[in-house]
Design goal:
Radius of gyration: 23 Å
Shape: globular
Oligomer: single chain
Strand order of the largest sheet: 1-4
Order of helices and strands: HHHHHHEHEEHHHHEHHHHH
Helix content: over 70%
CATH topology of the largest domain: ABC transporter involved in vitamin B12 uptake, BtuC
Number of domains: 2
Amino acid sequence: MSRAGGTLRRKFGLREAGVYYALLLLVTILTAATAMLGRPSYLSPVNLINILYQTAPVAIMGVAMTVVLITGNFDLSVASVAALAAAVDIIVIGHGGFWLAMAASLGVAAVAGILNGVMVELVGINAFIVTLGTLTAIRGLVLVVTGGRSLMVSTPGALRAMTHFESGRAGPFPLPILYLVAFTVGVGLTLHLTAAGRRVYAVGGNPEAARLAGINVRAYKLGAFVLCSLAAGFAGVLYASRFGAMNPTALSGEELTVIAAAILGGTSLFGGAGSVLNTVAGALVLYTLTNGFNILNLGANYQGLIEGTVLIAAAAIYTVGGRRRAPRRIVAELAAGSGAAGDETGTHEAKSQAAARSAAKEIV
């Protein structure tokens, strides 16, 4: 098979395009089901725009989560950070106006991201432990900040500003959809067209080679945590602006939806691979399911069962179909090293270092 044919096959294979096939199949099934039951057309512009609108906050967090996953980490605290940002937004907006409230919300979120990054990269604690701890601690802080009560915006001017920011429209599209498009395009172009983006992939795919290439691995990984928390803070502002209120349990469990969207999009849990556009498609799959269940009046129990099954099936497909294959030259070196039983340990280490240096040259 030609090189071009192999590239084309890979682009349209399950690993790269599986989430789009799943989305197309799901929309086809729901369209047929609504037509058979005599319900309004599933493909009506109003319904499609509503799905995008509902998806936007989680997809924004998912795009940033993809960057964290590409660097080889993950963040369980995003939903708690979003809830804290929403609480801060509502508290501050009554005293300092909309933009000051947003700045305060994003500032609090950035601090949470820095805390996660420092604990993982500088202290050396496992990301699962750190972000699980901050998930719980920040959720507790939300309870402290709110006093365990729901918060509401009481200033008419502030409420109008929040409504315009979240519910305003550009043509037929609510503004959150445009925020999602802008963020996805910006992050996607950065990852694929800039040196910084290539380094992000290198940091997750081969940290040792990245280090030998002169990349500050810790800085990139810490920066990914900050980006993820900032995106969560922005999602929290959207949430507060949508309802003009929030309760201490708001967004509980959404961190799992965010991570599920990235997994459905084929982002590797081992770092070095992922696409922000595929993550958005993964979020659309989840919210298309939710929307379809609501239209068909199916219970939440079935919804959870099917969503969980879809997630496990997607993870299985990506795991089996995406097992990493080392480059031929590295495989040959390893085979040669294993065949020489009498080689010294230092020789094997030298070969490993040489392979890492060779990979580092490709990065830069």
